[in-house]
Q: What sequence folds into this?
């Protein structure tokens, strides 16, 4: 059963006076519970595709649906709610809220979802325990290492029980040991909690971990391997 | 404390120097507004009370049309009946009767036109400050007859001193000639040129004899226990007069109708004050606007992340507004407290205005002004600051609603 459906996606950017066609008629289907890597060189369009799947960006043409929700004709507020309940994000540069502690960063998504305070705190701590940060609840992002911050970001992404987690170059700023640990953790979550992970990456380690590897070049899918 | 408020609080202190400067601007504006408004309200009350004490009283009962024409024939025929009504009103401090005529006043050397006022020496002393204005000689006694008090400038013009004789020549109520020779008992100086140059006070009974007034007077002058009591006294007086005789052509005028110039001065002062306050609040509003535009530039990436993880535009606006309201509330609270403390100090000690302007002197104010702190003066200015700064913060708070997450997150 597919959780993500992309049909004939086209996207063109304007870079100064030059038009850049980032995606050229991409059609893609990703099954629930997948651990998928969108790989390709810089400028290939993988991040654009990830952003479009996550409703952060809109395609010029084509349709996208996540967990049965088609994005066309949805307002900004509706898309925000869709992201809140269906999509988790892990960014290359962590993007935690600097004024909130680790546990508050994780809690914040649940606050937006309207989860009760006591339940929020309990679930946030449990998920931080799962990612190995049981001793770092009250530390703010500036007091955490890059690897720890990315773990908090993963915890924040999955705490809302999303249908998919989109990770944009999650290991790019981490050393290989930390990156490996992070991927192990995400794989474990994928297997145990059946969360669908979609990565955009050009890191071989991520590609090795992925069970499905989609290669993108010049805005087109050039290879799609299921391992 | 909810995470929203916690976030707002921590965000406010991310740039402590800027926050302190912004809060200080709001606090200073609020302080200034509390003090200045209290000062203005206090000075108005002083102006009104001083002015009414010198001459008009808080209220007067007159014959209809007298205020405009000042005709000797327009009289209050039976002032004692009005006095009986006034005796029953608890908020009345004192009242007196006056009769007024325009006459020629001559000394041996000169003649001037003057206002001759008949007063009840005992009652007058309770209503006006005339007795305390004596500079030479003495105030009228209860049983005095052909003796007068004269303004210092008029005495100077007539080249007379106390115990000198002057001749008064005018027209009586019945059209006959009113003429008498009186002796100067005292010379007063109020500081108000018009009064000192043009007026003479004589005992009311003697005035009534000379001018053929019988028992009539022109003004029943009333002072209330406070300015606030004026409207109540006016209403009771109106009812009382109608009850005695609905056809009696008498009117009750309050200080605003009696001294329109005073009201205009107050209004002018208030308007110029409001213009000053408007610009003050505008400066603070721009300070808040600047702070929050800077916040948007600095935290665009963060707002993009918040939108990416699913915050709705409305909630994002709310977060920024909580920051603005928190900052404004701190500033305003500090301003109100400091402003109130400073005002209370001067409310007790007064502000020396011995070098006061001519306008203030005209209204009998020459010593100290006491600011008056009230709920209105403490909260109206800061309340407007709150509303204006809220509106100023609304623009950037609404602007971030349209941020697109992808563009915001790549904003450097």
A:
């Amino acid at each position: 059963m597919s959780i993500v459906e992309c049909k004939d996606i086209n996207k063109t950017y304007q870079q100064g006076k030059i038009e850049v066609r980032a995606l050229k008629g991409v059609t893609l289907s990703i099954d629930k519970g997948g651990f998928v890597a969108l790989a390709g060189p810089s400028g290939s369009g993988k991040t654009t595709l990830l952003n479009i799947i996550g409703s952060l960006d809109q395609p010029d043409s084509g349709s996208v649906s996540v967990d049965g929700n088609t994005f066309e004709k949805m307002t900004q507020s509706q898309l925000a709610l869709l992201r809140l309940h269906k999509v988790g994000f892990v960014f290359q540069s962590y993007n935690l809220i600097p004024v909130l502690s680790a546990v508050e960063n994780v809690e914040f998504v649940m606050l937006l979802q309207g989860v009760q305070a006591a339940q929020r705190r309990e679930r946030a701590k449990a998920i931080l325990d799962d990612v190995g940060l049981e001793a770092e609840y009250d530390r703010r992002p500036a007091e955490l290492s890059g690897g720890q911050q990315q773990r908090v970001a993963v915890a924040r992404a999955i705490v809302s029980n999303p249908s998919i987690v989109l990770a944009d170059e999650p290991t790019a700023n981490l050393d290989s040991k930390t990156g490996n640990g992070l991927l192990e953790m995400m794989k474990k979550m994928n297997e145990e909690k059946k969360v669908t992970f979609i990565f955009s990456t050009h890191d071989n380690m991520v590609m090795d971990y992925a069970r499905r590897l989609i290669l993108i070049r010049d805005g087109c899918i050039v290879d799609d391997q299921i391992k | 404390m909810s995470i929203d408020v916690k976030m707002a609080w921590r965000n406010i202190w991310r740039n402590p120097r800027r926050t302190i400067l912004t809060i200080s601007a709001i606090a200073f504006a609020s302080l200034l507004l509390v003090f200045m408004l209290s000062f203005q309200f206090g000075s108005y009350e002083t102006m009104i009370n001083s002015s009414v004490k010198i001459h008009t009283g808080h209220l007067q009962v007159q014959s209809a049309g007298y205020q405009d024409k000042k005709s000797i024939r327009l009289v209050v025929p039976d002032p004692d009946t009005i006095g009986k009504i006034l005796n029953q009103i608890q908020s009345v401090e004192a009242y007196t009767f006056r009769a007024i005529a325009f006459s020629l006043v001559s000394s041996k050397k000169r003649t001037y036109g003057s206002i001759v006022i008949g007063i009840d020496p005992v009652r007058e002393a309770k209503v006006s400050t005339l007795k305390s204005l004596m500079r030479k000689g003495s105030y009228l006694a209860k049983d005095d007859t052909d003796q007068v008090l004269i303004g210092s400038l008029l005495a100077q013009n007539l080249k007379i001193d106390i115990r000198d004789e002057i001749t008064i020549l005018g027209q009586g109520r019945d059209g006959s000639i009113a003429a008498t020779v009186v002796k100067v008992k005292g010379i007063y100086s109020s500081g108000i040129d018009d009064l000192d140059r043009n007026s003479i006070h004589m005992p009311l009974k003697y005035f009534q004899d000379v001018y053929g007034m019988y028992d009539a007077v022109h003004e029943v002058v009333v002072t209330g226990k406070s300015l606030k009591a004026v409207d109540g006294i006016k209403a009771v007086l109106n009812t009382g007069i109608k009850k005695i005789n609905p056809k009696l052509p008498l009117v009750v005028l309050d200080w605003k109708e009696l001294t329109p110039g005073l009201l205009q001065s107050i209004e002018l002062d208030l308007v110029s004050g409001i213009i000053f306050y408007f610009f003050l609040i505008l400066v603070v509003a721009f300070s808040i606007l600047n702070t929050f535009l800077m916040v948007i530039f600095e935290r665009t990436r963060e707002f993009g992340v918040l939108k990416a993880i699913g915050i709705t535009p409305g909630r994002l606006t709310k977060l920024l507004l909580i920051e603005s309201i928190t900052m404004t509330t701190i500033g305003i609270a500090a301003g109100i407290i400091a402003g109130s403390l400073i005002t209370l100090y001067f409310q007790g000690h007064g502000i020396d205005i011995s070098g006061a302007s001519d306008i203030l002197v005209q209204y009998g104010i020459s010593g100290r002004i006491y600011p008056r702190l009230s709920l209105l003066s403490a909260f109206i200015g800061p309340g407007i600051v709150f509303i204006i700064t809220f509106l100023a913060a609304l623009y950037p708070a609404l602007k971030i609603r349209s941020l697109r997450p992808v563009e915001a997150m790549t904003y450097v």
In short: The mean pLDDT of chain B is 89. The two ends of chain B are 32 Å apart (CA to CA).
